Amino acid sequence: MSERGGIMKIxxxxxxxxxxxxxxDVSFDLKAGEITALIGRNGVGKxxxxxxxxxxxxxxxxxxFLDEESIFxxxxxxxxxxxxxxxxxxxxxxxxxxxxxxxxxxxxxFDEAFFNELMQQFELPMKAKLMxxxxxxxxxxFIILAFSLNVRFLLLDEPLDGxxxxxxxxxxxxxxxxxxxxxxxxxxxxxxxxxLEAIADRVIVLKGASVELDxxxxxxxxxxxxxxxxxxxxxxPGFVKNNAQLLYRNGRIYTLLVTENASSFLxxxxxxxxxxxxxxxxxxxxxxxxxxxxxxxxxxEI
Length: 302
Prior knowledge:
Shape: globular
Distance between the termini: 55 Å
Radius of gyration: 22 Å
Largest sheet: 6 strands, mixed
């Protein structure tokens, strides 16, 4: 991986929109060579966070630093980051060539060879106007453009909408490969959790204007356990209710997530001699279910 170095620091961002608190004291760091999944329910503030991180909006409180320089006091450092919005319709009347010309002038790091290679690979015409593209082809073009800018920090808002499954897999592979080679830091906001599963190193969960969780998937899979269990009797042991989060329930079969002291929990569980005990792989969707569900699933005894 190429050493690009540097950290983007988001510090105590607070933002109100029409007297509504959209972001409250949001802080985290973005490091080179990492893919971060930003998840949260619709309307939670993901797009507002991106817009504030890139200086489109001014925060009511807090700051964003790139190599220790505030993007608001030193706007020239914003050349090292790019925000791909989920709606780029303002370019509809432009041709591909014109859009490329605009961004080539703004970003001196533009990688012409990389851009041309991907345009040919995905058979996108250079002279066509964007309004002639389907939603999927337009999304594909802007993903290619974003990575061709060769910036250090990329923020992508629902970038995979409209792409068919084959193109999606190719793009995800391209994103992962490019991040590894260039050391880019990429943040992807998406409600398609299963797509982020394959490429994300880290997950940040937004809930109620604040960061609810920030963790690395590798750590989560090392420290936590997801299990299916069914007990001999109808009674649920107290330690299970106290120490496990209930993901799903199907009759007497419970799917549980244990995020702390997983090994000791399993040891205690085996002493109960359950009729079913199976370990399963943890997914981003499991975390979403536990932390963002409106209605928590309750244990019950049949």
